[in-house]
Amino acid sequence: MDKISLDKEIILDATEEVIRRFGPDKANISDVAKSLKVSHAAIYRYYNGKTALWNAVTERWLARLHAPYNHILNEDMPADVKLYHLLENFAEAKRLSAINDPEMFAHYIKLAHSSMEVIEKVKEDGINKIEKVIRQGIAEGIFFTESSPQVAKSVYLATSVFIHPDSFADPDRKKNIDSVVNLLLSGLKNSNK
After folding, report:
1. What predicted TM-score, i.e. pTM, was given to this entire model?
2. pLDDT by residue (tens digit) across 138-150?
3. Which residue, of 124, 139, 150, 151, has the greatest Cβ tally within 10 A?
4. Where in the chain is the domain with CATH 1.10.10?
5. Which CATH class for the 3-44 domain?
6. Architecture of domain 60-189 in CATH?
7. Rounded distance, CA 148 to CA 188, Å?
């Protein structure tokens, strides 16, 4: 592969494939370079080391995983229904990725322990999406709250337990998600605060 055809997307594609092939513990930049038939240094022209490359591949993978959230946000439906769908999707996206793409999910978990920058971006994005729906609900007269940023953070924290791998095998998981989300929605709809 000549230098002209090498770009960040090609490197990220190759990195994902290397992680899937070797697993997150054994994959390295040399494997990525070898798969692209370029030198190790060619990768460093685009990414300043393994951490930067691993962060970039995880951010892109998470962006694809979270793409359906934007569809939910743009749907024409009342805020309470939209928030239910959004929170349910938050919970299920990680579980399904652990089943359907276990190597990349394992890479995500490994990165979560070492790179708070990527994880904080994901958390902030989730809170912002929740806040957008809460503001919609306030405008519709469905939700009653004076601090949508703090409430959005609380809703995110209350449901984040369901994105943890320990929750995936719980036989009551779906019932628990429904229960927590319905409790949160009831609280948001309570005008007697």
Report:
1. 0.83
2. 999 999 988 899 9
3. 151
4. 3-44
5. mainly alpha
6. Orthogonal Bundle (1.10)
7. 10
